[in-house]
Amino acid sequence: EVVLTQSPDFQSVTPKGTVTITCRASQSIGSDLHWYQHKPGQSPRLVIKFAFQSISGVPSRFSGSGSGTVFTLTIKSLEAGDAATYYCHQSRSLPYSFGQGTKLEIK
Amino acid sequence: QVQLVQSGAEVKRPGASVQVSCKASGYTFIDYDINWVRQVPGRGLEWMGWMNPKSGNTGYAQKFQGRVAMTRYTSISTAYLEFESLRSEDTAVYYCTRRGDYGDFRPWGQGTLVTVSS
User: Fold this and answer.
1) Which of B92, B94, B105, B116 is an S-S bond match for B86, by CB 3.0 to 4.6 Å?
2) How do B112-116 and B10-12 pair as beta strands?
3) Nearest residue on chain A to B94, alpha-carbon basis
């Protein structure tokens, strides 16, 4: 079973700043790692797939990198609307799993 | 556009069962697996299991085995989550989501709140 560990658990950043969230897998998962943005009262929204591939409709300020066991999600030029909890998710092997989440605050 | 629409909120007594539906539109239902994910209040996203709508094959997270069943009715492009022996700790928002070609989950249903309370 693949365990995903995100860091940090919480991050507070000023508008126009940059944040990097890390997701570490307990074993190699290639590039089968995806990132979601989840706001209260809404459904999760895919922001990066396959570690680094962009998603139509998601601002180019969102980027992903990594492979194997260490992955990062970077959000540049932060806006108030980016405040959310971000989750990584692996689809390499069953059972699929999510990281514990990183809550991003825009102060 | 590709869309998943779930059934409405439910309130159940402990020990009862619940069925949540997930109606797909905008694509060929049998071509993509449906997965179910839940979020207990104050907690993160938790993967529950998957279903292949074409074959009916399923796979469940170990913690839900024996209490959950994922089924479908292909003629109406609808997937179902059936959950029995509900406990208060099963109070959560339940989401269905489609597994894409890269294993990503998109789109997601709007979520169904299931409240288990005596």
Assistant:
1) B116
2) parallel
3) A43
Tokens of A89: 């998710």
What local confidence, expressed as pLDDT, does residue B88 receive? 97
Read off the pLDDT band of B68 (50, 70, 90): very high
Distances (CA, A) of B81 to A3, A36, B36: 25, 23, 8
CA distance from start to end of chain A: 37
Q: 95-114 in B: which are within 8 Å (CB) of A?
A: 95, 97, 99-100, 102-111
Average pLDDT over residues B8-15: 98
pLDDT of residue A18: 98
From chain B, the residues in CB contact with A99 under 8 A are 44
- Closest alpha carbon within chain B to A44: B108
- pLDDT per residue of chain A (107 residues) written in tens, 0 to 9: 999 999 999 999 999 999 999 999 999 999 999 999 999 999 999 999 999 999 999 999 999 999 999 999 999 999 999 999 999 999 999 999 999 999 999 99
The answer to whether A104 touches A82, Cβ cutoff 8 Å, is: yes
**Residue whose structure tokens are 């950043």:** A13
Q: Is B33 on the interface with A (CB under 8 A)?
A: no
DSSP A94: S
Q: Which residue of A has its CA nearest to B63?
A: A95
Please judge whether A50 and B103 are an interchain contact, meaning their C-beta atoms are less than 8 angstroms apart.
yes
